[in-house]
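User: Could you check the structure of this?
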Amino acid sequence: MQKLTLRRIKSMIVKLAVPAWTNRETKMFYFNVENKDSFPLICVGRDSYLADGLITTGANFTFSEGYAVHNLHVGQFSSIGHCSNFTVGLGHNYFNLTTGVSELFKENIEPDYEGNYKEKGQILIQNDVWLGHNVTIMPGVIIHNGAVVAANSHVVKDVPPYALVGGNPAKIIKYRFSKEIIDKLLTIQWWNWSDDKIKENNEFFKSQDITAFCNKFYDEAVDNNKKIKDIQISRLDNTYLFFMDFTDPYGIWKRVIKEFVTKFKSKEDCLLILYIDKESSNNNVELTNSLHQFIHELSTSENFKCSINAYISAKENERSLFKNVDYFITNRSKYTILYSEYAYENNVKIISGVDIPIF
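Assistant: Sure, the predicted structure tokens are below.
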């Protein structure tokens, strides 16, 4: 189990650092929580670094019914400068009469997530992203591939691929390259190459001749994409995809299914696809069987009209799944950034599975 340079310095602040040159593969970092299993707080991709920063989070790393929303993902080859601040799980319900916190308002100190309010706790920073000094990222934000965030910026909404943003709130200043070049880079996805392929083409990576790079690798990437096998699966007007996290610490699969049924059980046009990797299914037969039993028990409830399907397939078919769905529900898996790329390239809306509520 990998431990991060991570320590609580106040009841609501966690300090973190992943030095440059030290993170040669994607790693999950865990936070020790008193009287609980180590919590998967951060996932940092290959050759990304965080000079130093803070995760500002719920008081005493609050767990509600054994669950916490806190989650940060950083993709590959991303650079995060000093004094970065990631705000997770610190929302106030402004739909209520008051946004204040007091024992006078309610005897039960557990948070109330009814109505329009959602507690957001996940931040996704994709690949080849640069965050300057003293950047603050709010919960629920996705910073897409190749983006740059100027120093002292406050990011409150998603940042498009290869955009340069700055200010408070951060706004688009310009794009690093033309739309044609950006589209080609997103097709090439060099950050997903092997170490050997990057080394073989090292001369391109500190060159400003981006056109030459695209000219060499774009057609190859297009050809490779054409080789992706199409799969035929049943779908409805509103089809949701979730990758099962049976064996992950603090897995959320039961919450996802329960909340889906609660929200959509009377909707005939809503389908939840629960993807299980074939190898994982073979190695966890009892868990797979328990899933079917869990679904069956929920489906016997009155007025149950939505659909839930378990889909077992080989890992190489994962990318094709995104061509057949409308929504992708994230979890804490180390593959979350990769799956968020698949969602983006297929115009699939991303829903954070660690938020409360999810839907």
